[in-house]
Write a structure and sequence with these properties.
The complex is a heterodimer. By secondary structure, chain A is an alpha+beta fold. Chain A is built from five helices and 22 strands. Among the domains of chain A are: 108-187, Trypsin-like serine proteases (Thrombin, subunit H), CATH 2.40.10.10; 205-300, Roll (Pdz3 Domain). Chain B has helices at residues 3-22, 51-54, 185-203; strands at residues 25-29, 35-42, 46-50, 60-62, 68-70, 72-77, 82-86, 108-113, 121-134, 141-150, 159-161, 167-172, 179-184. Chain B is globular, with a radius of gyration of 16 Å. The chains are: A alpha+beta, B alpha+beta. The A-B interface holds A 1, 5-9, 11-12, 15-20, 23, 110, 116, 118-124, 150-151, 153 and B 1-2, 5-6, 9-10, 13-14, 17, 104-108, 125-132, 146, 148, 162-164, 179.
């Protein structure tokens, strides 16, 4: 490390860059009577925002980072996770990059919002806690959430929580926990969004297992033929559940569902969102040190 | 980079910036309840504070080294909540003034002041937004810096500084909850130049 390096300046510069990068994908969402809220361009023409800030189905306006105002239509909403997807008539915002992997407690994060025409707004904090599943105040179940001590300014709902590289760690909302700010992890939010964009609403898959992540020793990773540091050890299998009917056993370690590796609870939950209900799925498990797979029909979660 | 070394040098930087700025931060008493902060703007005795800090009473100024002076109000502009004081002293440790034109949301900032009478307390955060605020008498919109640093009574008139210790603004509590609002230093500089220019003309 050269002596002249000033880490405080470097940190400051890095956060400015992170804000600029994510600000290019953060838009204003004008769909309620009170002041506007925020949203994230997560795919071409598509804006992810908080469901509770979309109070009307028509006359929805989105203001892009360049200041231009576009009409938007509601592509789908999921009050249970407080997410909604808006469709724009054209592109215009940069596409946000989702952070890969799970957020860590203590990690530096920035909350971003664009509730005014004065430009991007941001606040700094750390990831304070990771929790879930939790029943939301809106009759749903949030499989996973983050909390941060970054100040949630008015109008930040629907905006991104980002890391110091400008990648989206989650979507902020105050609509799930009686006004307290909470962040929906990006992986989960993206998955809900893709279902909403396709179907307009969310059906959630159900296996009927309780699990916890466990490290996979090198020998077992060689069995998999890929680098995967962990899997999900089954510690409970519900009676008459899809898991039981498919033959999953306590002690099995789930390592993949279909083509998707499953290394932690977030990935399991993400694998159960989307167009999966009622469809057969191949579950790859490590059982008694051997790699095997079972096929079962994924059920629908009734909340 | 070794992470322990990194966090240690971040801490060292923060302490160094703080120590560098503290010398230029004064206490402004108004002879009544409460006190505010001020920034030594020029080494020949000119000190910037908030207008509302000295709006009433006879101001006195205490330097970081404990020396105390009666202060003479030179200029006030209530609409941007700024006041310029002068004390009969020279060779004062003037603050490093940074240009507030090129600021960015996300920049690291520190606020120094005397919240609830706690001398020289420092709080940290980032620039949250760069916008405008309506002035009190319904006048024009002035540019302001919002930061997510915690401020309390006693922070008024104190500096908001960047990661290099340069003053980018003067904290004011007039608008906006317990989070920081600061008047950008380029506006302060214009105010000071205007005030000192007027005064020189007046004495001619």
């Amino acid at each position: 490390m050269p002596k002249e390096t000033n880490p405080l300046n470097s940190l400051s510069d890095a956060m400015v860059e992170a804000v600029e990068k994510a600000a290019a994908a953060t838009v204003m969402v004008n769909a309620r009577r009170r002041f506007p809220a925020s949203g994230v361009a997560y795919a071409a023409n598509l804006i992810l925002t908080a469901d509770h800030v979309v109070e009307r189905d028509e006359d929805i306006k989105v203001v892009l980072p360049d200041g231009s105002e576009l009409a938007a239509s509601l592509a789908g909403r999921d009050p249970g996770s407080d997410l909604a997807v808006l469709r724009l008539e054209r592109n215009g915002a940069a596409i946000a990059e989702a952070a890969s992997g799970e957020a860590q407690v203590g990690q530096l994060v920035l909350a971003l919002g664009r509730p005014t025409l004065d430009g991007i707004q941001a606040s700094l904090g750390i990831v304070s806690a990771i929790g879930g599943p939790v029943r939301t105040g809106r009759g749903g179940l949030l499989e996973r959430y983050l909390r941060t001590d970054a100040t949630p300014y008015p109008g930040f709902s629907g905006g991104p929580l980002i890391d110091t590289a400008g990648r989206v760690v989650g979507i902020n909302t105050s609509g799930l926990a009686r006004g307290a700010a909470l962040t929906i992890p990006a992986l989960l939010a993206w998955s809900v969004a893709s279902t909403l964009a396709t179907h307009g609403y969310v059906r959630r898959g159900f296996l009927g297992v309780r699990s916890q992540p466990v490290a996979l020793p090198p020998a077992q990773q060689r069995l998999l033929g890929r680098e995967q540091a962990s899997g999900l050890l089954l510690v409970g299998v519900e009676e008459n559940s899809p898991a039981e009917q498919g033959g999953l056993l306590i002690g099995d370690i789930i390592v993949a569902i279909g083509e998707k590796p499953v290394a932690d609870p977030d990935e399991l939950l993400a694998a159960l969102v989307g167009d999966v209900v009622g469809k057969p799925a191949t579950i790859q498990v490590v059982r008694a040190g051997q790699l095997t797979s079972v096929t079962l029909k994924i059920g629908e979660r009734k909340d | 980079m070794n992470t322990l070394l990194l966090s240690q040098s971040l801490t060292d930087d923060l302490t160094r910036v703080n120590q560098q700025v503290q010398r230029s931060v004064v206490v402004v008493h108004n002879g009544r309840m409460g006190a505010g902060a001020g920034v030594i703007w020029r080494s020949d005795g000119y000190i910037v504070t908030n207008h509302h800090v000295i709006a009433r009473g006879r101001p006195r100024v205490t330097l970081e080294d404990g020396r105390e002076y009666p202060a003479r109000p030179v200029a006030k502009e209530a609409n941007i909540d700024l006041a310029l004081l002068h004390i009969e002293a020279s060779g004062l440790p003037a603050a490093l003034i940074a240009d507030s034109h090129g600021l960015h949301v996300g920049q690291v900032v520190l606020a120094i002041g005397h919240p609830w009478g706690q001398r020289g307390a420092v709080t940290g955060g980032i620039i949250s937004s760069l916008g405008t605020a309506e002035t009190r008498n319904g006048g024009s919109a002035v540019p302001i810096i919002r930061a997510d640093v915690t401020l309390a009574p006693g922070n008024s008139g104190g500096p908001l500084v960047n990661a290099a210790g340069g003053v980018i603004g003067i904290n004011t509590m007039v608008v906006g909850g317990d989070l920081g609002v600061a008047i950008p230093s380029h506006l302060v500089e214009e105010f000071v130049n205007r005030a000192i220019g007027d005064r020189l003309e007046a004495t001619e």
